[in-house]
Amino acid sequence: MRVTILGSGTNLHPRRAAAGYLVKTDNLFLMDFGPRTLSNLLKTSADRHQIQYLLFTHYHADHFSDFITFFFDAVCHSKFVSPRADLRIIGPKGTKALFGTILRTFPSFNDSEFRVTLKEVSTRSFSIGSTRVTPVPVTHTDRQTCLGYRITFQGRTLAYSGDATYAPNLIRLCRDVDLAILDCSFPKNRPGEAHMHAGECGRVAQEAGVKRLVLSHFYPIADRFDVKKHAAQVFRGKIIRARDCMTLSV
Ligand SMILES: [Zn+2]
Ligand SMILES: [Zn+2]
Fold first, then answer.
1. pLDDT tens track for 110-120
2. Averaged over 77-106, what is the pLDDT?
3. Mean of the per-residue pLDDT values for the chain?
């Protein structure tokens, strides 16, 4: 399994795209689709028209907004250039209402040549080909259901936290995984609400028995401090500071 970080920042980070990850197993799929991640997707060798699954953790704009551009392109491409495979959009409660409205409302969105299906998930595992996906609700804000995802393929497991705070459900999500990508919005010395700082990411990784920890989802303040060092005060394993367009083997 391979994962490419399409975005390691947040909404208006000046140098990093917001949240988005391209996963290659026996299928090609995205987890989140924040602003500027589509531009980074175009820099990879992946064919965007081959992507059949979009997984969303939640619908804050920094995880979602490039879907609009992607989908409009997919509609035009399938109509005027070549057909594309069906698209399955998967996310937490609220997915059907949100995408139902978008698909009905944006011009041309309701007459795509390919089929679009919407699926809401909460805790039950499901398969994408031979890839096993387990959603785990994590704790982010009171008003948002946010899911983390555990992805298992050929005996290897990747966990992605979405946006999360330190809590037992996050430890469960990351239990014994080969690679965990965690929300590291803040440095330890400048913590904030609704997200983790680097020290908490290290704590999660250590308690969950993670093998490699990827710190990502940086607010600009996180780039002014040594977040790897903050996480390493607690976590003994390998720590990677995410960069846009970085590809990791799992
Ligand atoms: Zn969020
Ligand atoms: Zn976010």
1. 989 999 999 99
2. 97
3. 97
Q: How far apart are CA 23 and CA 6, in angstroms?
A: 10
**Predicted TM-score of the model (pTM):** 0.98
The CA 133 to ligand 1 mean position distance, Å, reads 21
**170-206 per-position pLDDT tens digit:** 999 999 999 999 999 999 999 999 999 999 999 999 9
Ligand nearest to the CA of 194: 1
The HSE-up count of residue 146 (CA atoms within 13 Å, CB side) is 27
How much distance in Å is there from the Cα of 211 to the middle of ligand 2?
A: 24
| Protein residues placing their CB within 5 Å of the ion ligand 2 | 62, 163
Q: How far is the CA of 241 from the centre of ligand 2 (A)?
A: 17
CB 130 within 8 A of CB 153: yes
- SS3 at position 93: coil
Query: In angstroms, what is the span from residue 52 Cα to ligand 2's centroid?
Result: 23
Distance 19 CA to ligand 2 centre (A): 7
CATH assignment of 2-242, given 3.60.15.10, 3.20.20.70, 3.50.50.60, 3.40.50.300?
3.60.15.10
- Which residue type does 146 have? C
Q: Which residue has the tokens 């979405």?
A: 162
What's the mean pLDDT in 8-22?
97
> Ligand 1: distance of its center to the CA of 161 in Å?
11
Q: What is the mean pLDDT of residues 48-59?
A: 97
